[in-house]
Specification:
The structure is a single chain. 20% of the residues are buried. The protein has helices at residues 5-14, 54-58. The protein has 2 helices and no strands. The radius of gyration is 10 Å and the shape is globular. The chain has one domain (1-61).
Length: 61
């Protein structure tokens, strides 16, 4: 995992393009309503945002 679970959650909560998917095997959220990059449709299997939004949001945290 490139970042901590908490960082992925914080970034997803601040991302205007977050799109929850249930088809992401990277998701490890216990809560089914968890907002995290790990269960976003734009988060690739190799753990990067395909929209290239992650770094700009994470840098502002």
């Amino acid at each position: 995992m490139r970042s901590s679970k908490q960082t992925y959650e914080n970034v997803a909560q601040r991302c205007s393009s977050y799109a929850k998917t249930t088809d992401n095997e990277l998701s490890n959220c216990v809560d089914s309503d968890c907002t995290s990059c790990l269960n976003c449709a734009h988060f690739a299997q190799d753990e990067h945002c395909v929209l290239d939004l992650y770094d700009s949001i994470a840098n502002r945290l």
